[in-house]
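Lecture 7 notes. Example A: sequence first, then its structure tokens.
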Amino acid sequence: MRFKIIALGIFFVFFAILCYFEVPNLIGGFVNKFSDGSAQTAMTNQIFSQLGIPSIDAIMKYMQYSLIGLVLTGFSMIVFGAIAKKTNIQSSSSLFIDSKQKLGDQDNTNFKVIHLLQERLAKGEITSSQYLSLRRILEDET
């Protein structure tokens, strides 16, 4: 299981639920600071509409819908983390290392030299005909 994904999903769910109930208080506090606490909602909505800002009720709905989306995201992360299988990356790299170790010293040296030749060819330091002739020489030695 992917414990980090599950833990992050649980965090999202709890954070969103907590914020869902606190958003109206936070927005109400912001409006009171904006209007010095003396303005009424209608006047504040009128000021916001003149500035091109949606009404307070619309802002609260947007925030609450966003938090509902965050809860759903958290739940989907929890489900994904519970279902997902952990891939074993080390198995493929260990097979490569084991195959190299099984080669004899001469074969291992040839493998390294051929790899260096391939790198030089890729960098453009040697031409393809030079690469092929050098590789034939190496293969004839074994």
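Example B, a different protein, same format:
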Amino acid sequence: MKYDSTLGRALHRELRCLATTLRPATILHYRGVANDFLAHLKRRFAYVRRADQLRRDPHILCWMEELAQRQPPLAASTRLARLLCLRRLFEGMADLPHPPRPGLIRSEDLPRCDFRLPRPLSVEDDQRLQQGLRTANDLLANALLLQRASGLRIGELVDLPADCLHHIADEHWAIRVPVGKLHSERWVPVDQDARDIVSRLKYLCTLAPAVPDPQFLLPRPRGRLVLIAHLRSKLHSVAGAAGCSIRPATHQLRHTFATDMMRHGVSLPGVMKLLGHTTPRMTMCYVQVTQADLQREYLKAQSQPRHFIPIPTLPPQVSADPASVLQTFQSALHLLDCSRQNLGYPKPLDVLRRRLLKFIDTAQRTYREKIKKDKNG
């Protein structure tokens, strides 16, 4: 789009400044928002040529209303991202000779995003899909199997280097995921099945018509985005042929991996590191906890003792020493609590526990007073 106004040129200048710190894909998103806003002004308010001519009402509010009424409807997260982008562009233009007014986009203008539940595949659909991918056994099918076995993002999958598989020690292997979406790299442990998939991918890349790429594990003769589109198309076709109940997305393989890891005993911090997340809240959007999972965890907790405090040890020789007597009482109280738990907390033992607590309290006060008198005497 041509930036033929002072406002357009100011936005273009700010985009060039942001390009020094943000990724090209992010700048592409910012440029799309700026072009959309300028096109809106050209249609509805052609007289606006400078940033200081912008007003919240009607220029910004009219654009927000247009975003909310577009067909097909834009998701709340999409509208939120566009408003945040435009607000950041306005904030960066504060040093202009004619800057935009502050407060054009306020906090109350930002739509609340819907909370999305995790979307892992059901156990049946997961088995059907994996079986269908193994039956296909071509380059794209094995790439999708690798994503399911390692929980990678689709962008991380296509960006894997040719030497992504590394030997750690003994039988421990891991895939090195390069710096990507969150500006960090990580190591994802893999089993023998995932290692076999990587070996098949390297072999399939040597067969025609595939052309091996010395830099990446997956060849991309027509570019990165085309490869991602082919992977998504392959997933849809295999899922349909395998009889899956839904039309899965590639990101659902990542949800399925996270849920599978959690059900096999991996802790929440462990799953967070496997997925490359920065907060547990983000990870909880990927992990599905069903009623069966809750019942299993509840029964597991019931089968384990609830008292994690070690049982106090009895003194080697019980004597009339005050410290020895108090330690004996406290050990008896702990053993009584364990017995009450095993017997289902019967009421007669509650009476005994209250009496024992009174004994301990009386003994502590008595010995404390005696020690105080001895010091004063």
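Note on Example B: The longest strand covers residues 172-177. Residues 347-376 form the longest helix (30 residues).
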